[in-house]
Amino acid sequence: MPAHPTPLSRRVAAALFAVLLGMPCPAALAQAGRAPPVLPLASEPPPRLAVHPPVPEALARGVIILQFRTENLRTMAVVGPKAAEVSPRLGHLHVTVDQGPPTWAHTSTDPIIIVGLPPGRHKLKLEMADPTHRILGGETVEVTVPGAGGASHGH
Prior knowledge:
Layout: H1 7-21, H2 26-31, E1 48-51, H3 56-60, E2 64-66, E3 68-71, E4 74-75, E5 90-97, E6 103-106, E7 112-114, E8 120-129, E9 135-145
Parallel strand pairs: 4-5
Antiparallel strand pairs: 1-3, 2-7, 5-6, 5-8, 8-9
Keywords: Signal
InterPro entries: DUF6130 (IPR046133)
Pfam families: DUF6130
């Protein structure tokens, strides 16, 4: 066997790896002269947002930590009309506290962390937006920031 793999052996290895994973390998398809399959954006399922209840230990200290998960939407800091045409779908979250303003863009998959809200009930509106800021759906979470002496939270 040669010390360095030949182009043919690399293609065979890439194709074999793709078969083992049960999916086409874009590199193998490209080397074979075929374009990798791309799902047209219009036929993608709609994005979904799942927000977990606030972390209780942090909420007891007045810190709201919301973990979330998106489906059919890759959360990242990309904006503009060309980015809105990319498949799989790109986007970010718009976060509004107590019907704002302000609203800010959350552009990562890291948890949303909010500090400094006064004790009491608050509404946090999380909206999925495409790179042109068009709203794709969302969820509102109600949270109670405890005063001195206790914690409670809602979802």
